């Protein structure tokens, strides 16, 4: 689920969630985009380990 930012109202959130439930391909697309932006899994832990050394 993408992060929602700003002044939101429950009906808006409900519409967004319902849209993703009815269109799972949209959610998969966003998940892929997030993976591409955030990098490989575990990168945050590797950076933390390097910083602690």
Automatic annotation (TrEMBL):
Domain of life: Bacteria
Name of this chain's protein: Uncharacterized protein
UniProt source species: Richelia intracellularis HH01
């Amino acid at each position: 689920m993408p992060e929602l930012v700003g002044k939101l109202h429950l009906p808006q959130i409900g519409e967004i969630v319902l849209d993703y439930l009815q269109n799972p391909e949209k959610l998969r697309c966003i998940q892929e985009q997030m993976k591409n932006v955030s990098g490989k899994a575990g990168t945050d832990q590797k950076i933390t380990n390097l910083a602690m050394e």
